[in-house]
Please model this.
Amino acid sequence: MTVATREVEKKEANLHHGVERTRAKRVYTPAVDIIEKNEEIYLLADMPGVDNESVEVTLEKDTLTIYGKVEPEIPDGLRLTESEYGVGDYQRTFTLSEEIDREKIQASVKNGVLRLTLPKAEAVKTRKIPVKAEA
Amino acid sequence: MLWTEFNNNTFVDPWREFERLNRMFSRVSSHRSCEFPAVNLWVDSDHAVVTSEIPGISPEDIEISVVGKSLTLRGTRRVEDIRDNEAYHRRERWNGQFSKTIELPFNVEAGKVNASFKKGVLYITLPRAEEEKPRKIDIKSE
Model:
């Protein structure tokens, strides 16, 4: 686990070798938090510029891919004099373990953050075993 | 480990590798790391536009103040509540209080600053102060 620092830098996605994109655009790797709770796993991804319509979550076998399309907003007639970040799409791929209930995965985007809820399959939920006190 | 990132490294194209190294050493086109939140500044003769990526915050939690030539952004990005039996598998998103000041190229009309926040992107329009705007000077013919 790495703890995020105050310094931020958008990292360009490491595309698969030999694969070319049809859109001539930069693609960034979104920063994510993955939190495991009792019943589910949460994935939060920073994708500024993305909303519910422009995000795509696909699951193919064990591979979960998140893709966010960004339409850059360029102020008309102004020139960029200082730039700390680039604008482009987002993509990141994860390999899911077997223990996720695939049918119940939920996704929503709020204020540029994608929130994925991945419910655990019934079999792996932690069960509490009551300990009986002997009289 | 529950999560593994998918990365196909089986075939390495030497040319691609060269490009990657080249990019690593030349800082011309790439963006260096900066303090949260990252900011872009756009300028013309009588406006400045500041855009900033601040995902995961509500617009009412962002404080914008302008004094003369400096613009300050303040706010807090909250952490997800974690209980004892819950754990982070990955933690890459920055959280906490931020305060960032940007120096603008000219004084701005503080009363006419406009800000909007959409999809985690802040967009601030700052008109240049009237008295500072470049004036066209008519030449009188005698």
